[in-house]
């Protein structure tokens, strides 16, 4: 964050468009967190672009007084990649839901992450299709009964953090819509990260999948079921930090600290070059119905795509001189008549 | 080495059509390409037709693996690679089997007799060796033990026999260069530079080339030598260029002319990939090439770059256009500049990836959901791909719209001499970004409306980074002017009309339709795309006989130039040669109520001039009978 006093306020970052999410939707609290946070980043509105695909979450750009594109289903990471590559000085955000990012757009998500183009991808995961009125999504749990799965879904769901880690992401975090401060911390970290960042936001859809995250996000449940990852600290949770995480048989396992001793706990390190431990942590919970890690799973420095590309352009100009069209047309043998 | 280019007693012929055919691994494309370059530098007019299988290495010696390169060289202006080869270079039995039927009656066959052994004959489906069984009696057969002679000449160089064999295409090139009095120096220089650092390869290829050249003399093939004099082309500086290279350079030229950086989003696909390869080389022009994860990402990234103020391009072939359809529709809705380059190939589905066809016209004009009109521009010759690319970019940038640029596999890979333009005379492309608010709200404050329009109905291009012009665009319908999401029925109708009208008005900016040849002729040949060359060839023949046929070439297929309908209605017969089942015919009928007739060919090959000539004469005869 900048040391300068913010020159804008939340109002400057909001548009005059009426917000049209269902009353009570988790998207409101994410939008509020974002609009309140932006003045603190010290970035100007004209240098900020929000890009989305299709879905409830994808309406997000209409409500941010920045530049923005509400594109087509699943392709937002590709639009953002093009813009970030063309204009690396911009601050580019991508917003989408679990259907947008992990189903129709899964391919673009993983490729944006592996390329490490400097975009901040916010994946609003409500584990359901909202805008098409309630079908199961690629993150819905097995057995999910919906309009399109009246006998229960037989699809194995994606774990968004695992997917991102497997896709060579250099920054992966998880947060939830009931904790503004934590969301803002994760969004800021994503913005600061030079490269592609993925933040999974557990987001409640109160119409089609209400309470999906209650087990972990309700205030009364948080101590017992939210494992807050803190870089450099042993991974502990519980009201009295009585529980912890160890590595055993190449897996992350939840234990009672009293049983193993504090020194046996995993000390969280976001910067491990090998994502294996972060991946193990992402597998601690099979869904938000048991103790689930939130926070930054991984934050490593890796060559950023647009700047690597810009360096090649510079190098080519230094080596061959600025392009000369007349010379280009004569680059093959010529003859005169 | 003797050079026969200036020797006395060598007969002159106006033109020769040579077809080099062999196995995919025999280097036929390289051989044809070198022969072409030497001929270009010699000053001939020429046109080429490379034809190769989709497989990189089909089983050696099989019919499926035959790769061929046809070139016509001429002392007179030409526009096609020739209807029928007069010379067939057959490097193996499969090449003979697959390409003999193309050879003109009485033509010359130069066969590598070493390859006509039992196994290869069997693979090609020959029971008897055609070199021996008399089946080639109608042709002039020149049998040359190319493999053996190449091995022999390479042996003293210490080149292993297996490696030496790979130089046999240079033996063939040397022999054909001698027969057609091509200068040898350009090829020797090219070998030295192409294989620089690989001395053994240079030595082997050079030795094979020289051995082939010398063979003609020692084997007393002198009676076959002919000379094709340089063509009398318009004075100027020339280079030999194929369609994909010219198109790539046109895109770079448009970037220079508009002052906007070039962004290419592309996914490799035959026969368009060479544009990606070419543009990737020219980063010193500020060109950004993005090899995307798929066709959809390629076009999406391009639209993202367009929103950022770049000259954005996506290149592909038919299957890729199908995948890009939804994103192109978004570009129509966003009214952002974008050029989609479709190097058409045989379809449907994967179809014939390496063969030409022009069956994407309907997809280009109509292939999106909703009412989503956009301009369509077609290139008509390899070199003209340069101008077509500039024109597509100009329309995209000045009218803020996606534009489809159609080329095809034939134009992409064929080459011809190109009289280089003076870069100072290239068309200018006028485009600027919005810099300030364009409206005042009810409180009297300046505001920006992204969908306010100028007199051409073009909306402002406000790029991120510009203060006070923050705005959101999207695929949802926008209100006319402010550009906010709108579900208002009246507004949707109005926006639909505006989108149609703004594309239709582009015709105001195009030259009126006009024909080549007699505007009062009886028959009009209407061409679009690469049929231009064959139509020109037919026009020369028809014109030589004084027949009343005119030629209208349509470079703009949406919108059509003003006057197209009026012009076509003046003819008794409108004939439309197309490498499809009649797509332009349908458009002309629908737009102008003109009784257009198709000449259709869907065989993966371009038209020959003879086919169009015959069709035009048949139409004239029919009109004569009924009049």
Describe this structure in words.
The complex is a heterodimer of chains A (337) and B (627). By secondary structure, chain A is α/β, with parallel strands linked by helices. Chain A has helices at 10-13, 26-41, 76-86, 98-104, 106-115, 160-166, 180-192, 214-217, 219-225, 257-260, 276-282, 305-320, 325-329, and strands at residues 48-52, 67-70, 91-97, 119-125, 171-176, 197-202, 226-229, 236-237, 243-248, 251-256, 292-299, 334-336. Chain A has 13 helices and twelve strands. Chain A has an eight-stranded mixed beta sheet with strand order 2-1-3-4-6-5-11-7, sandwiched between helices. Chain A has a three-stranded antiparallel beta sheet with strand order 8-9-10. In chain A, a hairpin with a 5-residue loop joins strand 8 (236-237) and strand 9. Chain A starts with 9 loop residues before the first helix and ends with a strand. The mean pLDDT of chain B is 95. The radius of gyration of chain B is 27 Å and the shape is globular. Chain B starts with 14 loop residues before the first strand and ends with a helix. With 627 residues, chain B is an alpha/beta fold. Chain B folds into four domains: 4-224, Pyruvate-ferredoxin oxidoreductase, PFOR, domain III (Pyruvate-ferredoxin Oxidoreductase, domain 3, 3-Layer(aba) Sandwich); 239-425, 3-Layer(aba) Sandwich (Rossmann fold), CATH 3.40.50; 432-509, no CATH class; 523-626, Rossmann fold (3-Layer(aba) Sandwich). The interface between A and B is large, with 60 and 71 residues.
């Amino acid at each position: 964050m900048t040391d300068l006093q913010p020159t804008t306020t939340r109002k400057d970052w909001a548009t005059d468009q009426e917000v049209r999410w269902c009353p009570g939707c988790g998207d409101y609290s994410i939008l509020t967190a974002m609009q309140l946070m932006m003045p603190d980043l010290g970035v100007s509105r004209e240098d900020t672009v929000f890009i989305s695909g299709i879905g409830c979450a994808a309406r997000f750009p209409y409500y941010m007084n920045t530049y923005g594109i509400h594109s087509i289903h699943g392709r937002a990471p590709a639009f953002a990649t093009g813009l970030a590559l063309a204009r690396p000085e911009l601050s580019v955000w991508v917003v989408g839901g679990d259907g947008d990012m992990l189903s129709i757009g899964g391919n673009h998500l993983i490729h944006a992450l592996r390329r490490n183009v400097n975009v901040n991808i916010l994946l609003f995961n409500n584990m359901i299709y909202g805008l098409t009125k309630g079908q199961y999504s690629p993150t819905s749990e097995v057995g999910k009964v919906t309009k399109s799965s009246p006998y229960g879904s037989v699809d194995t769901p994606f774990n968004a953090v695992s997917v991102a880690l497997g896709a060579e992401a250099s920054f992966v975090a998880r947060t939830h819509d009931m904790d503004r401060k934590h969301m803002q911390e994760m969004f800021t970290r994503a913005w600061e990260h030079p490269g592609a960042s993925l933040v999974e936001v557990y987001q409640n859809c109160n119409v089609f999948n209400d309470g999906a995250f209650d087990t972990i996000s309700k205030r009364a449940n948080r101590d017992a079921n939210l494992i807050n990852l803190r870089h450099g600290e042993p991974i502990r949770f519980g009201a009295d930090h009585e529980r912890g995480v160890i590595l055993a048989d190449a897996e992350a396992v939840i234990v009672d600290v009293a049983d193993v001793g504090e020194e046996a706990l995993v000390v969280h390190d976001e910067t491990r070059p090998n994502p294996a431990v972060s991946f193990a942590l992402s597998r601690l919970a099979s869904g938000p119905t048991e103790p689930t890690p939130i926070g930054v799973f991984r934050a490593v420095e890796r060559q950023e795509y647009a700047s690597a590309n810009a360096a090649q352009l510079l190098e080519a100009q230094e080596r061959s001189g600025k392009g000369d069209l007349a010379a280009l047309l004569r680059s093959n043998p010529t003859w005169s008549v | 080495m003797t050079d026969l280019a200036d020797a006395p007693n060598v007969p002159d012929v106006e033109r020769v059509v040579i077809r080099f055919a062999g196995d995919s691994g025999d280097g036929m494309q390289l051989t044809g390409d070198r022969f072409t370059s030497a001929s270009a530098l010699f000053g001939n007019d020429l046109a080429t037709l490379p034809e190769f299988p989709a497989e990189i290495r089909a089983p050696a010696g099989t019919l499926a693996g035959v790769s061929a390169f046809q070139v016509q060289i001429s002392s007179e202006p030409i526009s096609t690679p020739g209807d029928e080869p007069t010379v067939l270079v057959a490097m193996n039995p499969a090449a003979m089997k697959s390409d003999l039927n193309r050879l003109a009656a009485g033509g010359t066959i130069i066969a590598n007799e070493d390859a006509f052994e039992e196994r290869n004959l069997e693979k090609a489906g020959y029971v008897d060796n055609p070199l021996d069984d008399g089946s080639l009696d109608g042709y002039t057969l020149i049998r040359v033990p190319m493999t053996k002679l190449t091995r022999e000449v390479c042996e003293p160089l210490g080149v292993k026999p297996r490696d030496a064999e790979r130089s046999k295409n240079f033996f063939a090139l040397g022999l054909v260069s001698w027969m057609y009095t091509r200068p040898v120096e350009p090829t020797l220089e090219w070998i030295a530079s192409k294989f620089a650092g690989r001395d053994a390869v240079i030595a082997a290829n050079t030795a094979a080339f020289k051995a082939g050249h010398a063979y003609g003399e020692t084997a007393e093939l002198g009676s076959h030598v002919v000379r094709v004099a340089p063509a009398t082309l318009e004075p100027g500086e020339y280079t030999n260029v194929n369609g994909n290279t010219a198109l790539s350079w046109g895109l770079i030229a448009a970037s220079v002319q508009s002052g906007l950086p070039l962004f290419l989003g592309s996914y490799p696909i035959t026969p368009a990939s060479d544009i990606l390869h070419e543009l990737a080389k020219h980063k010193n022009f500020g060109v950004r090439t993005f090899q995307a994860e798929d066709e959809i990402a390629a076009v999406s990234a391009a639209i993202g770059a367009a929103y950022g103020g770049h000259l954005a391009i996506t290149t592909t072939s038919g299957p890729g256009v199908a995948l890009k359809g939804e994103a192109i529709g978004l570009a129509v809705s966003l009214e952002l500049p974008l050029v989609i380059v479709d190097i058409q190939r045989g379809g449907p589905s994967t179809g014939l990836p390496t063969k030409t066809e022009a069956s994407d016209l309907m997809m280009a004009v109509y292939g999106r959901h909703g009412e989503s009109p956009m301009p369509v521009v077609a290139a008509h010759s390899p070199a003209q791909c340069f101008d077509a690319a500039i024109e597509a970019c100009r329309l995209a940038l000045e009218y803020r719209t996606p534009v489809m640029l159609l080329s095809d596999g034939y134009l992409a890979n064929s080459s011809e001499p190109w009289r280089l333009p003076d870069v100072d005379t290239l068309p200018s492309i006028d485009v600027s970004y919005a810099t300030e608010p364009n409206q005042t709200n009810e409180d009297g404050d300046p505001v920006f409306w992204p969908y306010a329009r100028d007199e051409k109905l073009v909306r402002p291009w406000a790029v991120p980074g510009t203060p006070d012009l923050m705005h959101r665009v999207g695929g949802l319908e926008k209100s006319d002017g402010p550009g906010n999401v709108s579900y208002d029925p009246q507004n949707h109708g109005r926006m639909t009309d505006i989108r149609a009208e703004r594309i239709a008005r582009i015709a105001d900016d195009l030259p009126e339709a006009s024909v080549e040849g007699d505007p009062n002729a009886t028959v009009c040949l209407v061409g679009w795309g690469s049929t231009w060359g064959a139509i020109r060839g037919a026009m020369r023949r028809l014109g030589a006989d004084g027949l009343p046929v005119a030629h209208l070439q349509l470079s703009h297929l949406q919108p059509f130039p003003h006057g197209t309908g009026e012009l076509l209605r003046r003819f008794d017969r409108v004939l439309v040669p197309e490498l499809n089942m009649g797509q332009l015919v349908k458009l002309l009928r629908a737009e102008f109520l003109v009784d257009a007739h198709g000449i259709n060919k869907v065989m993966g090959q371009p038209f020959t001039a003879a086919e169009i000539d015959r069709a035009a004469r048949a139409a004239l005869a029919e009109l004569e009978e009924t009049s």
